[in-house]
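Q: I'm a student working through a structural biology exercise. My instructor gave each of us a protein and asked us to get a predicted structure, then write a short paragraph describing it. Mine is Fur family ferric uptake regulator. I'm not confident about reading structure output yet, so if you can add a plain explanation after the tokens, that would really help. Here is the sequence I was given:
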Amino acid sequence: MPSREARERVLGEVTLRDAGLRVTRPRLAVLDAVHGHPHSTTDALIDAARTHLPTLSHQAVYDALRVLTDAGVVRRIQPRGSVARYEARVDDNHHHLVCRACGSITDVDCVLGEAPCLVPEHSAAEGFAVDEAEITFWGLCPACAAGTTAAGGPDTPTTSRPEQGSATREVHRD
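A: Happy to help. First, here is the predicted structure for Fur family ferric uptake regulator. I'll explain a few features afterward.
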């Protein structure tokens, strides 16, 4: 029976080929890192990918992330006040919960299920073919709400955050 690593490598190869991409060691290492570390920053993904490919350069990771994102294999998210983060959960309609204190990000399924789950008023959307709505919910994660984690951790956004209780709604058209 093939090892877990061998199965994951084959899955990564199939994913890249299905997206019309060449299979390269850097792309496989970055794809594995994104799968293993959802909502991670580029720096965190560099560290994770280097566990599989120690000679991997920063530029190779940036290039792989761009190619994987452009091909729709990886999704780039950037909550307000945060650096870009990446996830492998694509082709579904989900949103994000972001903790104001520690910056952690959690996926939340859309209750409607179909994209877009929100549409602007008819007059505002005239002429637009809306196909996606990106929603970010802001608040405190359970640990921060209970006061068990320190604010200002490594994932804390570095710029201003939205007001308490607000939701960020961005509508994107691909």
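A: Here are two points you could use in your paragraph. The chain is about 35% helix and 20% strand. The chain has two domains: 4-77, 92-171. It's a good idea to check both against the output above yourself.
Q: Great, thank you!
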